[in-house]
Amino acid sequence: MPQTQVSLSICYKHITFIFCVSCVSSGGAAGPRLNNNQLYKFSYTTEVLVDKARGSKEGSAGYKISSDVDVNLVWRDPSSKDDQLIQLAISNVRIDPATHRSEKKNILHGSTAESVLGKTKMAALTKPFMVHLRNGKAKAFYSFWAEPATIKNIKRGLASLLQVQLRTGKVVENDVSGRCTVEYKAAQGQVTRTKNLETCKTAESGFTTHSQVLGVSKKSSSVTVFTLEDGFIRSAVAEETHSLAVNARRSAAAKVVSRQTLTLVGTEAGPLEAAGKDVTGVVKSIDAKFAAVGIMAEKVKSQCKGCPSLFEHWQSQQKQLEPASLSKATAPRSFLALIQSIRKASKDEILKVLKSASKTTLPQVVDAVTSSQTEASLDAMLEFLNFTDAKGLVLQERFLYACGFSSHPNERMLQALLDISKGKFGSTDIKESVVIIMGALIHKLCQKGGCDLPAVVQAKKLILAGPDSTEVESEVQMYLLALKNSMLPEAIPIFTKFAESEVGAYNTIALTALQRYNVNLMTNEVKQTVNRVYHQNRRIYEKNVRAAAADVILSSNPSYIEVKNLLLSIGNLPHEMNKYMLSKIQDIVRFQLPASKVIQKAMKDMNSANYNRFSKVGSSSAYSGFMAQSADVTSTYSLDILYSGSGILRRSNMNIYGASKGAMLHGLQEKEFRSQGLESLIAATPDEGEEDLESFAGMSALLFDIQLRPVTFFKGYSDLMSKMFSMTGEPMNVVKGLILLTDHSEVITLQSGLKASAEFQGGLAIDISGGMEISLWYRESKTSVNNRGAFVVTGNVTVDMDFMRAGVEVSFETEASLDFITTVQFSEYPFLVCMQMDKATFPFSEHLTKYESLSSGKSIVSRKSKKQLVPGSEFPLHQENSNMCKKVFDSNW
């Protein structure tokens, strides 16, 4: 008998040796196997740290949970040794700061795990739980439904650490993080598990800004290293990192680091394997209250004890949202905080704030409520606003613009605008804005793959058929502007058709819309149409229209022949148009824009580029330059000026672009069509194609890729005269309000079972106004476009476990202004025109806040700030303008 026992012992050891080798071979066990009648004793530590992206562990906020863990085999399928039911029991729980702290900075000083957790949670945490492993993969997780979600998630994190594949390869598996693609690499006695976190599918979905320039980038990694001995886990060390950064300023970044360490301390005699035919029966025989609750983490509802209600929060913030404060950073900061509060509020709570706000703060409340983009906030706005009331124009337009700028609109928001468009309006301006903003929502929903949603299909049908459904000029323009916002490929034939219309406004909208499309969509038919417009092959066009056509040609990957024909046209154009085209060509070459290479090639032909063509004089110009350059984002500006032959400013077009990592954002376009049809006032002769134009001055703005409703300064000779004599010089508002530019929200389920919430928001308080002063006495006019703004971005990463909370906030803010002023002296001929684009000195500050708190109310906060003043400057335009400005200001002096 002893001999038999020795023989079995040798055989057992032999099997164990083969199994260990199988860690790196194609045979043997699929996962770790436990022995019957044996208790495996582990030490377990899970810690979480939050900090700025480049912060050290020593300075991080966070905490560490340590415990002992007993593991034993409960049941094994007789037909498969890799089908096992395992029990785990946590004991001797300790909670400490993640890093060494002085007594003063240690909120856990004098606390025990039970005092922090509470008796109920501690009892739940130390209750045994079970995991069903088959071939090393978790097939079921058994615990108690009544346990708090936070506790069950911690247990899931520990159970997931036992999940390991002993062979090299990729696999999709479920664990606490969700359903993820995982790659295993096996070596002698060691397995490395790398989880592709981008593939993880969870029940909790977040949202992010559609614009990459204004958005947030995330980098994540998760690696677990298993050390194996005798076919079982000797140790498992997991480290997971998530780093989030604002694309426009990557130093505004925060990270969360999660670490788990499971180490086998020893073994001792344990309970015998339970009898049973299957897992379910065995689990019920042990405790009927055990339930298969799923290995994936469940949602945790955070409860804010002592937090103010929405109304209380509004009362504390309303002073910062008065119109006089909109140019200060306190306005967007309060705006962002109010959005966070509104997102947790009910419809009735939101309506209470809307109804209690003063007349001066109400427009800002409308911005915040609409930007919150919750079901309750949209319901509240639709109930609060009356679109048949002409007196409510300001609030109605603020609501519509906030819809247009929304970071993650849904189908219901578009459906709401569709329903509104079918009703009656107190103002035609609001009707136009509704349709124009519908186009913007169509574009954003299509970007997210929602082009086939019923509301999107219905709205597309409306605006695509719109231009041909009416003969009213303002309505045709409305539908064309909506299509311009929608960026629908189906709209290209419509724009191509209207590019050759007999109405100058239609031409200009159609051509500027075509310029926004991807070059690959510019077919030969489109290009031929645009070239016909520029070269006036079929009819005579206004200079505005021809200039817009030239912009489309030069920005759509022009061919050598197209460029050569443009060059050959210089010298045969109206006087100021010659100078404008020459300046445009030179600016593209100087600023090395995409068309510069083909232009330089064409300019080698002396027939195309010679002194006769390139010596044209005039006041019109085109100039591009850099506003700011950094490693994160490059901001450029361009200013195109076109005069009439009589010296009257015909068009100015200022653009500001932001570029980051290959993505482009059209931040601002202020396009003014001024002094149209005013030649009779100075007894001048209109240019070709402009003889019958009605007196008109207006401004069209495109803000953050959204075309807004154009603003008219005057239309018609009588309107001009009445406004000229009643003009106060007060600016006319083009757009004013608070805009949510950056909006990123997600819940990150960590491998440990803890959850980190990441909230990044960027708010802009903006005031764009345009004004016009005309003095017939002094024979001088001054037109100004004033841009005032304050920008705040905050990023919060918080790990909240009910009983303990740790987090970090990174933020930056600035206040800036940009003025574009045009002074015209018409006391002599030709007119003296001076343009200025000034940026005032502005403050810039960055802030870092780290915080830890207990449910008892005990907390600790640390703050750091860095502030600086960025000097102002006057942006260079072109040399002729500088010369003109000297004459204007010398004569004023």
Automatic annotation (TrEMBL):
PROSITE patterns: VITELLOGENIN (PS51211). Residues 34-668 form the Vitellogenin domain. One of its GO terms (biological process) is lipoprotein metabolic process. Its main location: endoplasmic reticulum. The lineage of its organism: Eukaryota, Metazoa, Chordata, Craniata, Vertebrata. The keyword Transport applies. GO terms for cellular component: basolateral plasma membrane; endoplasmic reticulum; Golgi apparatus. It is found in: Endoplasmic reticulum. This is Microsomal triglyceride transfer protein. The gene is MTTP. Keywords: Disulfide bond, Endoplasmic reticulum, Lipid transport, Signal, Transport. It comes from the Eukaryota. InterPro entries: Lipid_transp_b-sht_shell (IPR015819), Lipovitellin_superhlx_dom (IPR011030), MTP_lip-bd (IPR045811), MTTP (IPR039988), Vitellinogen_b-sht_N (IPR015816), Vitellogenin_N (IPR001747). The keyword Disulfide bond applies. GO terms for molecular function: lipid binding; lipid transfer activity; phospholipid transporter activity.
